[in-house]
Task: inverse folding
């Protein structure tokens, strides 16, 4: 895991570094006093996580983040800012925001979330005797079909001999919910909730029963809260 | 020949019934007005043609069902399945009304054969049946309305006396004309057509008044949003002016501090330094989350909360453009924020804080606001009082969203989710930027 910290104030840089070491000793940490240096290094050796100050001379944090996000292996960016608690920008760029002075407890929470994002949990599916390991985040939904279970991902659908309960157990702790009898859907891939169906980010629809609608609504909110 | 004119008038009235029902349920698609007029003209012609055919009532009902379903699917914002079952309901209501009136006329000693033969009795029976059908449709459309511009039950009820009077006048006409002649007389036809016209026009005008009222309310809300933007802009100007003054005076302050330090008056120097620091700290209170509409809405409410000594914690992740109307966002966030502040004041708790989460994810907007509370929230007096919970719910419904509120661990929480696909028809109003 490679972490970069970028701040034009040396004192802040060292303060952040000490917090990161306290969180996880043994991490490869690179320090940068300018966003330009950070980008040059990231082009050669990509970082997994970048703690990035927003208010910097020449290239500011927002612009640097946009350039980092355009790279082949973009890092997760945690903005560090002293520009006021009501200045929150950087949709689709920022993973999280940290207000200065940085509190260790909040940094720990955000770094833990970033680690979980970078190293997602896996799910093993057996189809025709062959095992395939998938990141759970790539699963859109499970559908019970006779004695089988169909697992839908963005590109491939798998059919395996497994019960829905077994699948639910394997992915316990992850954000899945039941919209209808015989279905288990990944909340991360829901793009709209209709009267009788859920639309997923790949355009597919999953039936939604009246009985499960409130559960799904609550699960979605819990999922979003958990992501924050 | 006169009787066919009457059949045509009832066919026209049926067109009105169909429009009242389905416009209330689904609303028109973004179809050209000419297409709507043309479709209804075709529907009207086919209904007239059907009335000329000597076919079984059941077969006629089946044909009308398919005609209505086709019309609804083409003109109204619905799916094929919904169009089919709602058309079935529409035809069932019409048949039900006819059978009800048939039974009523039978009770008044008019046999079914007389009612099916051209003449005064059938003409009056037709008008009564259509009037009853109209009353039922108004109630059904009001009960399951999806658009705010559709008449509600409360607005439909005053129309009922008109419908009852129509039936009563029909009964009187029956008494006068029925014994005199079998064929239709011109005064009777004029009276019948007049009754149908009056009822139709009253409903259309009432709907038009309702639409105007909704438009006026939308205008008021848009003005509210505009005022928020102006206030936000003025605050930015004020902040900019303060920054300019501080920048102008900073050298003067620095040199003053330097002199004080040189003179060994460190306490005074520190006081001077604190004064500058306080001035600088007061700057940068402008809300900037990268979305101008939300900036203005949040800024106004945060300033109000701060003035009351309430802190606000924001957790926001939204793009610069949210595919939702600025007015709707203003109604939802403005009203819930207002309620949260009022509740904090009512609580009178020290260090009260309002937590706001606003996250846009996968074409959905998640909004949650929580505040400390001691009882179930109450409300309130203010300039925009009245655009409260009812309007929030109406906005949420527009986006096929969800809303849940309740007390949890001594905090009142409102959670709202909106479906915000940019291609959804309801979001064609001003998009927030």
Result:
């Amino acid at each position: 895991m490679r972490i970069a910290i970028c701040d034009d104030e040396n004192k802040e840089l060292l303060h952040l570094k000490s917090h990161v070491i306290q969180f996880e000793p043994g991490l490869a940490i690179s320090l940068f006093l300018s966003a330009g240096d950070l980008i040059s290094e990231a082009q050669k050796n990509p970082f997994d996580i970048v703690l990035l100050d927003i208010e910097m001379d020449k290239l500011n944090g927002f612009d640097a983040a946009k350039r980092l996000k355009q790279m082949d292996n973009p890092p997760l960016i945690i903005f560090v800012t002293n520009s006021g608690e009501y200045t929150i920008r950087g949709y689709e760029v920022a993973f999280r925001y940290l207000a200065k002075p940085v509190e260790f407890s909040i940094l720990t929470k955000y770094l833990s979330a970033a680690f979980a994002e970078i190293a997602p949990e896996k799910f093993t599916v057996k189809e025709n005797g062959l095992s395939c390991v998938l990141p759970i985040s790539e699963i859109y939904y499970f559908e019970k079909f006779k004695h089988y279970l169909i697992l839908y991902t963005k590109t491939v659908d798998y059919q395996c001999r497994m019960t829905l309960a077994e699948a639910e157990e394997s992915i316990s702790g992850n954000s899945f919910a039941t919209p209808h009898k015989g279905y288990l859907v990944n909340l991360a891939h829901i793009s709209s909730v209709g009267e009788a169906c859920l639309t997923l980010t790949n355009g597919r629809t999953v039936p939604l029963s009246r009985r499960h609608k409130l559960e799904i609504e609550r699960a979605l909110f819990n999922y979003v809260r958990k992501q924050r | 020949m006169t009787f066919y004119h009457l059949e045509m008038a009832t066919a026209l009235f049926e067109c009105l019934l169909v429009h009242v029902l389905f416009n209330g349920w689904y609303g028109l698609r973004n179809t050209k007005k000419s297409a709507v007029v043309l479709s209804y003209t075709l529907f009207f012609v086919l209904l007239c043609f059907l009335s000329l055919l000597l076919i079984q009532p059941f077969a006629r009902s089946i044909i009308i069902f398919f005609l209505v379903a086709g019309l609804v699917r083409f003109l109204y914002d619905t799916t094929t399945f919904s169009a089919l079952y709602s058309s079935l309901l529409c035809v069932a209501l019409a048949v039900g009304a006819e059978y009800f009136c048939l039974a009523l006329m039978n009770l008044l000693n008019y046999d079914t054969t007389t009612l099916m033969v051209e003449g005064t009795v059938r003409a009056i029976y037709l008008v009564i049946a259509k009037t009853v059908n109209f009353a039922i449709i108004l109630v059904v459309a009001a009960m399951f309305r999806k658009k705010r511009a559709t008449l509600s039950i409360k607005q439909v009820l005053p129309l009922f006396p008109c419908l009852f009077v129509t039936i009563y006048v029909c009964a009187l006409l029956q008494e006068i004309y029925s014994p005199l002649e079998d064929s239709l007389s011109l005064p009777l036809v004029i009276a019948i057509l007049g009754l149908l016209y009056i009822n139709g026009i009253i409903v259309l005008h009432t709907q038009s008044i309702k639409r105007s009222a909704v438009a006026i309310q939308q205008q008021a809300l848009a003005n509210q949003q505009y005022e928020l933007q102006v206030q936000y802009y003025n605050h930015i100007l004020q902040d900019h002016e303060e920054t300019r003054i501080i920048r102008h005076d900073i050298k003067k302050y620095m040199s003053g501090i330097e002199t004080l330090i040189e003179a060994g008056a460190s306490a005074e120097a520190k006081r001077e330094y604190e004064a500058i620091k306080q001035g600088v700290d007061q700057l940068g209170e402008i809300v900037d989350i990268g979305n101008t509409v939300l900036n203005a809405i949040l800024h106004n409410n945060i300033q109000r909360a701060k003035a009351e000594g309430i802190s606000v914690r924001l957790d926001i992740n939204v793009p610069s453009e949210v595919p939702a109307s600025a007015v709707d966002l203003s109604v939802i966030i403005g009203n819930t924020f207002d309620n949260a502040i009022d509740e904090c004041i009512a609580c009178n708790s020290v260090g009260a804080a309002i937590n706001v989460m606003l996250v846009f994810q996968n074409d959905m907007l998640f909004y949650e606001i929580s505040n400390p509370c001691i009882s179930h929230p109450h409300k309130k007096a203010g300039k925009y009082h009245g655009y409260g919970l009812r309007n929030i719910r109406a906005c949420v419904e527009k986006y096929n969203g969800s809303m849940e509120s309740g007390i949890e661990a001594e905090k009142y929480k409102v959670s709202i989710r909106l479906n915000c696909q940019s291609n959804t028809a309801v979001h064609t109003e001003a998009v927030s930027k």
Observations:
- Chain A has a mean pLDDT of 86.
- Chain A touches chain B at residues 83-92, 94, 188-195, 201, 214, 217-218, 220-221, 224-225, 227-228 (CB under 8 Å).
- The CA atoms of residues 69 and 92 of chain A lie 9 Å apart.
